[in-house]
From TrEMBL:
<protein>
    <recommendedName>
        <fullName>DUF3841 domain-containing protein</fullName>
    </recommendedName>
</protein>
<dbReference type="InterPro" id="IPR024211">
    <property type="entry name" value="DUF3841"/>
</dbReference>
<dbReference type="Pfam" id="PF12952">
    <property type="entry name" value="DUF3841"/>
</dbReference>
């Protein structure tokens, strides 16, 4: 297995200065993720890092289960859970993520990866919150004004909420919704995978079933700034 050289750096130096260089059209995608030191050691020892399903976020089990199903449908790889990476984010915000990681009591490692796009499912970060919130996703139509969209959005979501009220499940997990309402909401979320719907400034996240040692081009243990 190829050795991964790890260095230590404060958040501002963990990422090289200048433009990061993300390209969502590239056959090999540039991705970043912050993993625990324990996960990094497992990557070194096993040559591969896979997620632990028991460590998945517990606040949004239905949204994460849906994403796992989307990965099973759209990727050639298999697995029980996802590893999450950034596929496009401003350097300023990636540094901010590193600052938060530097305050952890456990070592945190920023991994720079290059992974073939066929192993990666890209999704738009902001609109992923429709799934997290168990909300119906309503998209803006071509040439639609903000005012027209807001009016249509209110009409559609109010009608959908009324149907949830009628089924007595408005405050219930989506897993307890009637099948037709659940299917309608989940179908609406799929637009987060369609890059044509979003502008070039959008932040994109990536999910994969595994990170292989050969995917990693840089590893940085994030340390706090000296006092």
């Amino acid at each position: 297995m190829r050795q991964i050289l790890v260095r230590s750096a404060p958040p501002e130096q963990a990422i090289p200065p200048g433009r990061i260089g993300y390209d969502l059209d590239a056959p090999i995608l540039l991705l970043h993720t912050i993993q625990t030191g324990v996960a990094y050691e497992r990557l070194l020892s096993d040559g591969v890092l896979r997620p632990s399903p028991e460590l998945a976020a517990t606040e949004w089990p239905d949204a994460y289960a849906w994403m796992n199903r989307m990965m099973a449908d759209r990727l050639p790889t298999t697995g029980d859970a996802a590893l999450w990476l950034w596929a496009r984010i401003r350097r300023y915000d990636l540094v901010s993520n590193c600052r938060r990681a530097s305050r952890s009591s456990d070592p945190q490692v920023l991994l720079t990866c290059r992974i073939p796009r066929e192993r990666v499912l890209l999704s738009q970060f902001d609109e992923w919150h429709s799934a997290l919130n168990s909300a119906l996703a309503v998209t803006m139509g071509p040439g639609e004004t903000d005012e027209s969209f807001e009016s249509r959005y209110s009409e559609i979501t109010d009608a959908f909420l009324a149907r949830l009220e009628a089924a007595n499940v408005r405050n219930s997990p989506i897993s307890e919704w009637p099948a037709d309402l659940r299917a309608e909401a989940e179908r609406s979320w799929e637009y987060i995978f369609d890059r044509r719907r979003f502008d070039r400034r959008s932040y994109w996240q990536a999910t994969v079933h595994e990170i292989r040692a050969e995917d990693v081009t840089d590893a940085v243990t994030i340390v706090g700034a000296p006092s």
